[in-house]
Design goal:
6 helices, single chain
């Protein structure tokens, strides 16, 4: 296995891991507000899982983008990781990944300052996680090389569909009383 093959494999594995942790983070975040997963356990358990997975995506994403930058065939530069739609290669796919990364960093970092922010401002910033997930999903569909695998495709599309249903539940059912 060459270095580029190793880096490409690392990029794929960490991308799927980051996506998985992001799915669980958004799922538990929605569940905390809708009560649809109350049968699984207490809010304390869901909140702990939500807080854990909202940080778990970070090392996977760092490894994912680092492997792509180091992989000579990927043609992704360090600036492409922070400035969306700049890359000449896979402009839309990489741009959506960059936008997702930027939004997720904003959501994650502002979560540490929740108590120092106005509740309505924090809530609107936190809702950017929905947009970030859509961008990450589109990034995966447009740029991911693993969608030819039916298992990866089924899991990715299934998770996105499940989250879409839960998001619609959240929109139409609103916030349930504590």
């Amino acid at each position: 296995m060459t270095d580029d093959q190793l880096l490409w494999t690392l990029a794929r594995v960490t991308a799927l891991s980051a996506y998985g942790s992001l799915v669980v983070a958004v799922l538990t975040g929605i569940a905390l507000r809708t009560g649809v997963l109350d049968w699984l356990g207490s809010n304390r358990i869901l909140r702990s899982l939500h807080e854990y997975t909202t940080l778990l995506w970070v090392p996977f994403a760092v490894l994912h983008v680092s492997a792509l930058v180091l992989d000579s065939t990927a043609r992704v530069g360090w600036l492409d990781l922070f400035v969306p739609f700049r890359s000449p290669y896979g402009t839309i796919a990489i741009g959506l990944g960059t936008l997702s990364l930027d939004l997720l960093l904003a959501v994650t970092l502002t979560s540490f300052f929740k108590r120092r922010m106005r509740a309505d401002v924090w809530r609107w910033l936190h809702r950017l996680a929905y947009v970030a997930f859509v961008c990450a999903f589109a990034h995966a569909v447009l740029g991911g090389s693993d969608f030819s695998d039916p298992i990866v495709s089924a899991i990715t599309w299934g998770a996105a569909a499940g989250l879409a249903i839960l998001a619609m539940t959240r929109v139409f059912a609103g916030r349930l009383p504590a």
